[in-house]
């Protein structure tokens, strides 16, 4: 049988086990302190979001983590572009391009008038949507 580290250093197996048993609660407390500190930092960073969703309740650690995940998902999800936004952008570029020349032909003037009218028409303007916060109910066992 190969010599162990404990045997090589002169410590008995019982002494190593006892040292590990004494160290385990200290290491566990340090781990819990790190977790609690990180949760408090999240609570501080996203405090406004928490007040919007749960203004009068005391937040538990699980609540803070769930709300943080919801907030990150909401802020990370790309907002899909609608066809109207692409159309409006295209019309803007056409109007800009046709407006560059001082001397315009009749066709350029007609196109410019047509696209300026389309640009001002409410049917082709892209709607402005405000970001609505995702309000998911927190899981509560009671």
UniProtKB/TrEMBL annotation:
InterPro entries: bHLH_dom, HES_HEY, HLH_DNA-bd_sf, Orange_dom. The keyword Transcription applies. Residues 118-142 are annotated as: Disordered. SMART domains: HLH (SM00353). Its main location: nucleus. This is mRNAion factor HES-5-like. Residues 19-75 form the BHLH domain. The keyword Kinase does not apply. It is found in: Nucleus. Residues 85-115 form the Orange domain. Keywords: Nucleus, Repressor, Transcription, Transcription regulation.
């Amino acid at each position: 049988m190969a010599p162990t580290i404990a045997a090589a250093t002169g410590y008995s197996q019982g002494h190593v086990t006892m040292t590990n048993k004494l160290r385990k609660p200290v290491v566990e407390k340090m781990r819990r302190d790190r977790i609690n500190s990180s949760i408090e930092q999240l609570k501080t960073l996203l405090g406004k979001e928490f007040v919007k969703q749960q203004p009068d309740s005391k937040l538990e650690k699980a609540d803070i983590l769930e709300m943080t995940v919801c907030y990150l998902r909401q802020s990370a999800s790309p907002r899909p572009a609608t066809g109207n936004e692409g159309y409006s952008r295209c019309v803007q570029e056409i109007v800009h391009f046709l407006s560059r020349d001082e001397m315009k032909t009749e066709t350029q003037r007609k196109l410019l008038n047509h696209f300026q009218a389309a640009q001002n028409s409410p049917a082709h303007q892209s709607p402005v949507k405000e970001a609505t916060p995702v309000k998911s109910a927190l899981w509560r066992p009671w």
